[in-house]
Specification:
The chain is an alpha+beta fold. It is built from 2 helices and 3 strands, in the order ββααβ. It has helices at 24-44, 49-64; strands spanning 2-9, 12-20, 68-74. It has a 3-stranded antiparallel β-sheet, with helices on one face. Helix 1 packs across helix 2 (49-64). The chain starts with a strand and ends with a strand.
Amino acid sequence: MKMKLQVKKDDGVLCDVVHEVTDAESFGAGCKDLWIKLRERSMENRTSIGDLIDSLDQWLLDRLNGAQVHITRID
């Protein structure tokens, strides 16, 4: 079934993807797609390659702190 996976924080949507989910593996792949999309967005906000490499994952984890994952079935 198609599912919309969203990461929300402070009443705003940080990221969302639509993914075909049939089992735990495909659900994990959808979550991976969310992570990659958020990571790509964070790279757009960096000006230095060194800064980007040193802080990318930490910045993303800080950004996700307190966020909620919402899952919606799409018919």
